[in-house]
Amino acid sequence: MTDLLEMKRSQFNYALDPALIATQPLAERDQSRLLVYHRKRQLIEHRTFKDLPDYLKPEDLLVFNNTRVFWARLRGKKENGDSIELLLLRPCLKAHIKETEPNLSWEVLVKGKRKVNLRLYFGGSVSGIMSRDLNDGLAELTFDLSASPYPDVFRFLEVWGEVPLPPYIVKRREGRMPKDPSDKTRYQTVFAEHWGSAAAPTAGLHFTKPLIDSIRSKGVQTATTTLHIGLDTFQPIRSETLSGHKMHREWFQVPSSTATAMENTRKKGGSVVAVGTTVTRALESACVQTGRIQAQEGETELFIRPGYRFKGVDALITNFHQPLSTLLVLVVAFACEKAVESIYRAAQEKRYRFFSYGDAMLIL
Asked: Which backbone phi and psi does 67 adopt, to 5 degrees?
């Protein structure tokens, strides 16, 4: 039996037909396909996402990630006129973005070479200087808004930033329509509330307000948590073993109302259903210290991998994830390696759509 701490990254790789990578969302969010996997019976069903209420009981609790994607991709010019592309991840001094604060210094992912003291120029009379090299493709960028009409970086990005679509979507759209005006609404959940993510919590993209109303009409309770998605959504595992991978910090909050709802759900014999790997990570992070869910706010570096004992989550809704990603590792930890192999094989055979704009699965 493989030592769980020394599982190889190669165990989380798989071949995928590129034609299955979804580059556009469906016309209707809840018309995505839904693969349902029953862990106890080892049974796979093929349904439509609109059928989700059929699998929920009145005693259950559905937990959403209410983070809101901000327009984090930014293009600028160097002093010599060369172009540069950045992805803003988070303020350097504060883990949680607040619209009312300037947040001039940001942690950014740089496409290309990084150089300390490099001055960059953006639209709207905004400039910035690369003040620190943070390694792993990251740098600290300090903005200068003094000559601009913008009170803070956030309002500047609302005008000059771009939707931070994953690179695999942008690449496959090249030559056709790399920018789609609908992305600003479709790469955002209908329950998004708190600005702060550099990527969408993609399991939540399938929900519509009528579908949520239908779920609640069954007596199913809903609750929210917040986890602002950062670098690990974009970065594959590069170490040979899982033990060598270090997660980047992400800010999360589990409010007291959600912790109470989870406790009540357990008392009633219901299941806590996490809408996405980010909700799973937030809820499990709030259980780490005591083994029981409790209200918590802070940063998490929790890496959920095979051998982890889940304390807060009983069922999982998630999309199909990229090879060598920490998200795929989490799903394997929840459902087991052989089950995930079966799920992904069946999904490819049935021509499911993969990744952020793709179809979903429900693991019970």
From this structure: -65, 150
In the chain, the percentage of residues whose pLDDT exceeds 90 is 82
Question: What is the pLDDT at residue 87?
Answer: 96
- Domains present along the chain, CATH in parentheses: 4-69+182-363 (3.40.1780.10), 73-162 (2.40.10.240)
Answer whether residue 1 shows pLDDT above 50: no
Strands 360-363 and 33-38: parallel
**Cα maximum dimension of the chain:** 65
Distances (CA, A) of 143 to 92, 108, 146, 148, 218: 12, 12, 9, 11, 49
Q: At what angle do helices 326-335 and 277-285 cross, to 10 degrees?
A: 70
pLDDT in tens, 144-160: 999 999 998 989 999 99
Please tell me the pTM assigned to this model: 0.94
- Judged against a pLDDT cut of 90, whether residue 235 lies above it is answered with no
